């Protein structure tokens, strides 16, 4: 079996859709599960990152996914919706709102 090159997180979704890899498995220390337009990655320590992908392959996330990440940290972080919105606003222009309520890291 050939070793597949995964250069971008979005490649996991493409490889899964082309049936070159399973929809759920492990890559290194992370397990992954492809869903709809994205993928959920979980590290050995339980930290979870769930992202969707834009047409160009960039990672996009909403506050629900950001909350899931915070709650999955070794020392869980749970903040209010208002605090999360304020935090995301404070990170602009590092974050770009790509559609209402969805964000991506600015290139």
Describe this structure in words.
With 107 residues, the protein is an alpha+beta fold. It has a domain of 68 residues. Helix content is 26%, strand content 33%. The protein has three helices and seven strands. The protein is globular and about 40 Å long.
Give me the count of strands. Answer: 7
Separate helix tally: 3
Q: Any low-confidence stretches, pLDDT <50, length ≥5?
A: none
**Percent strand:** 25-35%
Radius of gyration: 15 Å
Distance between the termini: 35 Å
Main beta-sheet strand count, sense and barrel state: 7 strands, antiparallel
Strand order of the largest sheet: 1-2-3-4-5-7-6
- Give the H and E element order: HEEEEEHHEE
Arithmetic mean of pLDDT: 88
Question: Based on helices, strands and strand pairing, what is the structural class?
Answer: alpha+beta
**Percent helix range:** 25-40%
Question: Which term fits the overall shape?
Answer: globular
